Amino acid sequence: MTSSHPAYGQLRQVTSSASVLLADNPGKMTLDGTNTWILRAQGSDDVVVVDPGPKDSGHLDAVAATGNVVLVLVTHRHKDHTGGLKKFYKKTGAPIRASSEHFVRDSTPLKDGEVIDVAGLKITVLATPGHTADSLSFVLDDAVLTGDTILGRGTTVLDPKDGTLADYLASLDRLEAVGSGKVTLPGHGAEVADTAEIARFYRTHRLERLDQIRAAVEKIGPNAKPMQVVKRVYSDVDKKLWPAARMSVKAQLTYLREN
Ligand SMILES: [Zn+2]
Questions:
Q1: Alpha-carbon gap, residue 23 to 34, rounded angstroms
Q2: What is the residue-level pLDDT of the chain in tens, covering all 259 positions?
Q3: Is residue 170 assigned to a domain?
Q4: Assigned domain for 142 exists
Q5: Which of 42, 71, 124, 209 is surrounded by the most beta carbons within 10 Å?
Q6: How many angstroms is it from 76 CA to the middle of ligand 1?
Q7: Nearest-CA neighbor of 74 among 52, 59, 54?
């Protein structure tokens, strides 16, 4: 059995209580695809599913077949994580919990700091807005599920609709505070050894980019357009990634103007 990422169509055990099924939806924003995490206490048939993923029957069937699904948790609203929710609910009848009421079925919205005690697992909910306003992370004894707040490779794009850099930097601080010695289980990409370490790395990267953007704005002028900034700051990056970079630059320009 393959034990390394990406392992399409295979349930891959990552920690003692977490395994992953990778959806076959690779893309610019999804890397190799969406990770659907299956949490299970040792010896139990009950499982908690984090992010059923896109509306892909094959994938949802495989997720449902991993055990007796007792609860579904959602990290954030993006379609590559939530598109399959309705179908999965029809199939399993398992209650759904998310930050946003919109996705909740047979339960209540998740609250920051809440400890979910289910199927022999203890899962602490940590609000980590920034990628989107509704982004959550889930803290286990030995791991942190970070959704799209921290990825297995590359950096997170802040959604221009409701993501903000101020929130995002604060969320990285929170993840650093709880993440020492805990494996990162991201929404996309492979697991990362230590959540505190990767949170620090992400923050350093963001602040470096922010410095570059500040310098670019000084050159271009106070009304610098996001794409003008991208052309200067991301000149070393593949042009295909510029639209995504533009979104992050937009969020960073807002941050610079407000802070
Ligand atoms: Zn996302």
A1: 5
A2: 446 888 888 999 999 999 999 999 998 778 899 999 999 999 999 999 999 999 999 999 999 999 999 999 999 999 999 999 999 999 999 999 999 999 999 999 999 999 999 999 999 999 999 999 999 999 999 999 999 999 998 888 888 889 899 999 999 999 999 999 999 999 999 999 999 999 999 999 999 989 999 999 999 998 999 999 999 999 888 998 898 888 888 888 999 988 8
A3: yes
A4: yes
A5: 71
A6: 7
A7: 52
Distance 217 CA to ligand 1 centre (A): 28
Cα 152 to ligand 1 centre (Å): 13
Residue 122 makes CB contacts below 8 A (sequence gap 6+) with: 115, 116, 140, 141
Range of the domain at 187: 12-194
Q: Which of 101, 113, 119 is nearest to 139 (CA)?
A: 113
Sign of the CA dihedral with 168 first, then 54, 24, and 2 last:
positive
Q: How remote is the CA of residue 78 from the centroid of ligand 1, in Å?
A: 5
**Ranges assigned E (strand) in the chain:** 12-13, 18-22, 35-39, 46-50, 68-73, 96-97, 115-118, 121-127, 136-139, 143-147, 183-186
Alpha-carbon distance 89 to 103, whole Å?
11
Instruction: Using the mean position of ligand 1's atoms as its centre, give its distance from the Cα of residue 34 in Å.
Output: 9
Residue 231 falls inside a structural domain: no
Domain with 64 in it: what CATH number?
A: 3.60.15.10
- Please tell me the total count of domains within the chain: 1
CA of 65 from ligand 1 middle (Å) equals 25
The whole-angstrom separation of Cα 64 and Cα 209 is 41
With tokens 């709880």, the residue in question is: 178
The CA distance from 82 to 53, in Å, is 6
User: Distance, CA 174 to ligand 1 centroid (Å)?
Assistant: 19
Evaluate whether residue 235 is within a structural domain: no
